[in-house]
């Protein structure tokens, strides 16, 4: 079996645990390879399973990196939050063993393909697991946006930004901006304006099969940024189109079923940060 370890090298505990996993699995005949968080150039195809060693941010990076290959991810939480990364580091071998025995389900999570079109051509394209956020690049500046789903005009927004979130991302920035929390295995997209000037514009949940197109106002003067999963940014220009559609790939997360999600959700809503009685980390966010 070929195993990939995706490591947040900024966390010493991640490096130490990676060495432990390599030694243990290597002794069982597995081939183990390392891949550093944010190293986008390495070849990561051909692996049977991947461990994400970090926080939620490492899981987001892992999903964008290997979802196209269908590789399942075991998300170990070495961060302080761990909403997506729900497996305690001490449980890694037990989770791995139960997965190899077919005793653990794999949660398949919706991802979104995000493309920026300018002058009739694509200038940027990337997938996300949590969200795509359009916002002003300066402080306290508003932006003007129009949004459509297929031929239906959703609204003209004047706001601090606009979030397009997946159900997995519904517990992250979108939730902080007043958006709804959605079961992570439902296929839907949340379109959530950040501090809209017109109170009539509230978060809306759209079916994932309908692409959403967002146009940057042609008279927009302040800088505008597109941010993917809180990690990758792209500068936008007036008149740009941001096209968001359901990806053909899904993030495949081991030991992240509905039970784990709701345990984490209840812990977060109760204000808990740490390990709950089941050993699953029970709080949320974008910790790397």
How would you briefly describe this protein structure?
This protein is α+β, with helices and mostly antiparallel strands. The chain has helices at 12-26, 56-66, 92-100, 173-176, 258-269; strands spanning 2-7, 31-36, 49-54, 73-77, 106-118, 121-128, 131-136, 143-149, 152-159, 161-165, 188-194, 204-207, 212-216, 224-228, 232-236, 241-254. Helix content is 18%, strand content 38%.
Profile the largest sheet: 6 strands, antiparallel
- State the CATH architecture of the largest domain: Sandwich
* CATH fold-type name of the largest domain: Tumour Suppressor Smad4
Order of SSEs, N→C?
EHEEHEHEEEEEEHEEEEEEH
- Given this structure, which CATH class of the largest domain is correct? Mainly Beta
How many angstroms separate the termini?
Answer: 27 Å
**Major beta sheet, strand line-up:** 6-5-16-13-8-9
What does this molecule look like?
By secondary structure, this protein is α+β, with helices and mostly antiparallel strands. It has 2 domains: 2-104 and 255-269, 3-Layer(aba) Sandwich (Rossmann fold), CATH 3.40.50; 111-246, Probable inorganic polyphosphate/atp-NAD kinase, domain 2 (Tumour Suppressor Smad4, Sandwich), CATH 2.60.200. The chain is 18% helix and 38% strand. The chain has 5 helices and 16 strands. The protein has helices at residues 12-26, 56-66, 92-100, 173-176, 258-269, and strands spanning 2-7, 31-36, 49-54, 73-77, 106-118, 121-128, 131-136, 143-149, 152-159, 161-165, 188-194, 204-207, 212-216, 224-228, 232-236, 241-254. It has a 6-stranded antiparallel beta sheet with strand order 6-5-16-13-8-9, covered by helices on one side. A 6-stranded antiparallel beta sheet has the order 12-11-10-7-14-15, with no helix packed on it. β14 (224-228) and β15 form a beta hairpin.
